[in-house]
Amino acid sequence: MTTVKQLMLGSVLTFTSLSALATENLPTIMVYKSPTCGCCTEWVKHLEDYGFKTMSHNVQDVNKYKQKANLPHGMGSCHTAFVDGYAIEGHVPAEDIKHMLTARPNIRGIAVPGMPMGSPGMEYGNRKDAYNVISYTKDGSTEVFSSH
Fold first, then answer.
1. What's the mean pLDDT in 46-65?
2. What backbone torsions phi and psi does residue 26 show, to the nearest 5 degrees?
3. Residues 6+ apart with CB under 8 A from 78
4. Which of 4, 82, 112, 143 stands 20 to 30 A from 130 (CA)?
5. Residue 91 pLDDT > 80, yes or no?
6. CA 109 to chain centre
7. Cβ neighbour number for residue 27 with a 10 Å cutoff
8. What's the number of CA atoms in the CB half-sphere (13 Å) around residue 44?
9. Taking 90 as the threshold, does the pLDDT of residue 14 lie above it?
10. Please, is 61 exposed, middle or buried when counting C-beta atoms within 10 Å of its C-beta (0-12, 13-18, 19+)?
11. Which domains, and CATH codes, for the chain?
12. d(Cα 37, Cα 66) in Å, to the nearest integer?
């Protein structure tokens, strides 16, 4: 029985080590947000909970970062971020960011327009509104990336 316990413990430690290694390889997400926005801070915590490293920058004019992101009209939210050549707008779930970084689609970025209740950073009780994560290209073409 000792051998079985040792094998199980070894498997658990190996899995834990591999998970930690995978987490360490995630790129840093650069976040540009208003210094007074609490939901942006909660979204950053969500990303960190999923293993991303973040660098938050409190800025007075978030719009210039939206322009840098080539954000199409009507796709805006309260914060803009950049990771590994992609733009992220609004309360995009960490799982969708990981999927984008793995699949490497030919897009400029992904966005959650507005601030839907129940999206990461916008949790409020049990309320969870349905919302889409939208991918977009530099020329402004959009399509649904995922639905929540």
1. 96
2. -70, 140
3. 33, 34, 37, 39, 40, 62, 90, 115
4. 82
5. yes
6. 11
7. 14
8. 24
9. no
10. exposed
11. 27-147 (3.40.30)
12. 16
